[in-house]
């Protein structure tokens, strides 16, 4: 399987910043870039969504511009959507499964659990 991850931040951010620099100015610059992408997409009738596409043996993950009225474009909050396309249904999904995502509290608890697990790797 081929996995392709598209970076959500610009290559210039691959530089190492100290925590104070990142929190002081780095986050604001990241926000500015995303706000510009959101505005540009909105002017064309699109929204930005973090999407995973799985096709045959290819998996691609990244931010995409999608039509506001598409199943993914209509998502709100932490909802998730699974669209099923096939050879015969490649213009419109054969099925759409939508439901609540984990949400803030559950996601934060999962991240905290991962951090605690990682600390065990570094005695």
What fraction of the residues are assigned to beta strands by DSSP?
Answer: 25-35%
Mean pLDDT: 83
SS element count, helices = 2
- Which strand order spans the largest sheet, edge to edge or round the barrel? 1-3-2
Most strands sheet: 3 strands, mixed
Head-to-tail CA distance between termini: 34 Å
Q: What is the global morphology?
A: globular
By DSSP, the count of extended strands is 5
Global structural class? alpha+beta
Considering DSSP H and I runs of 4 or more, what fraction of the residues is helical? 25-40%
**Unreliable residue stretches:** none
Question: What does this molecule look like?
Answer:
The chain is of the alpha+beta class. It has helices spanning 19-43, 103-119; strands spanning 2-5, 46-55, 58-67, 80-84, 95-99. The longest helix has 25 residues, at 19-43.
What's the arrangement of secondary structure elements?
Layout: E1 2-5, H1 19-43, E2 46-55, E3 58-67, E4 80-84, E5 95-99, H2 103-119
Parallel strand pairs: 1-3
Antiparallel strand pairs: 2-3, 4-5
Question: What are the main properties of this structure?
Answer:
single chain; 123 residues; alpha+beta; three-stranded mixed sheet; two-stranded antiparallel sheet; 2 helices
Outline of the structure:
By secondary structure, the chain is α+β, with helices and mostly antiparallel strands. Helix content is 34%, strand content 28%.
């Amino acid at each position: 399987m081929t996995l392709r991850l598209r970076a959500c931040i610009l290559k210039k951010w691959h530089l190492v910043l100290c925590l104070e620099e990142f929190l002081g100015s780095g986050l604001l610059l990241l926000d500015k870039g995303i706000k510009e992408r959101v505005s540009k997409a909105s002017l064309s009738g699109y929204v930005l969504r973090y999407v995973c596409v799985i096709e045959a043996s290819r998996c691609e993950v990244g931010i995409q511009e999608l039509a506001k009225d598409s199943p993914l474009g209509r998502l709100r909050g932490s909802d998730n959507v699974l669209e099923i396309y096939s050879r015969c249904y490649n213009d419109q999904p054969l099925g759409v499964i939508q439901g609540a995502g984990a949400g803030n509290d559950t996601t934060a608890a999962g991240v905290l659990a991962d951090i605690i697990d990682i600390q065990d790797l570094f005695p």
